[in-house]
Structures are given as structure tokens and as C-alpha cells.
Amino acid sequence: MSDRVDWNDLRDRRLAEPGAAEAYEATRIAYELGQEVRHLRERSGWSQSQLARAAGMTQSAVARFEAGGTIPTLPVLERLAGALDMRLDVRFTPNADAA
User: Fold this and answer.
1) What's the N-to-C CA distance of the chain in angstroms?
2) Which stretches are annotated as coiled coil (predicted)?
3) Which of 41, 42, 35 is nearest to 72 (CA)?
4) Which of 85, 32, 31 is nearest to 54 (CA)?
5) Looking at the domain assignment, is residue 1 inside a domain?
6) Rounded distance, CA 57 to CA 52, Å?
7) Taking the mean position of all CA atoms in its chain, how far away is CA 8?
8) How many domains does the chain have?
9) H or E stretch at 2
10) Predicted confidence (pLDDT) at residue 7 exceeds the cutoff of 90
11) Quick one: which of 44, 60, 61, 88 has the most CB atoms within 10 Å?
12) What is the number of other CB atoms lying within 10 angstroms of the CB of residue 66?
């Protein structure tokens, strides 16, 4: 018999560790926010540098944010939204499985 573990088993074990699921969820949210900002920036025809100037940030901060590498504060999200001529809308929605 083999003691080898497949990826799914290893992932499940790691996600069961204290705090891991919360960290995974925070990373997912940061990634999705970054992707949305990137989509809006590209739709506007802006470079990261142009967005950074408009939002009072550095280009590298915008790049890290778009890559999901940072968890933004609400003031940062508000600055990005304003620079993109958008309104930040933070809301709670029911979980899909809570029907």
C-alpha cells in the first residue's frame, strides 16, 4: 500500500486547519476584487499607471491589488471606485445553500 496523498486529500486537510478556511476566503475575495478593478480599468482603456495617478496610488500598488496580492481597506476601494467613476457598493447577500 502507498502512503501517498492526492491533492484533494491534502487540500481538505489543510483547509481543516484552524484559520485556513477564513484565509482562503479572504484570498478569494481579494482576487475577485482585483479582477473586477482590472476589468473596469481595461474597459476604460487605462493603464495601471493612469489608474494609480487618478486614485492617488502607485502603479505597483495597483498591480498588486489587481493580482489579488493585497486585501484592500474600504478607503482604498473607495479611491479606486472614484477614480473609475464608479460607486462602491458593499452588501450582504444570502449564501446560495441557505435557501
Assistant:
1) 43
2) none
3) 35
4) 85
5) no
6) 5
7) 23
8) 1
9) none
10) no
11) 61
12) 22
For residue 98, being part of any structural domain is answered with no
For residue 2, pLDDT over 60 is answered with no
Among 90, 98, 97, 94, CA closest to 29:
90
Q: Find all residues with CB under 8 Å of 24, minimum gap 6, and list them.
A: 15
Q: What is the pLDDT of residue 59?
A: 98
Which three cell numbers, joined as nine digits, stand for 14?
489543510
pTM: 0.79
Kindly report the average pLDDT of the chain as a whole number. Answer: 91
Percent of the chain with pLDDT over 70: 94
CATH number at residue 81: 1.10.260.40
Say which residue the cell 476584487 belongs to. Answer: 33
Domain residues for the domain of 69 are 7-91
pLDDT at 24: 87
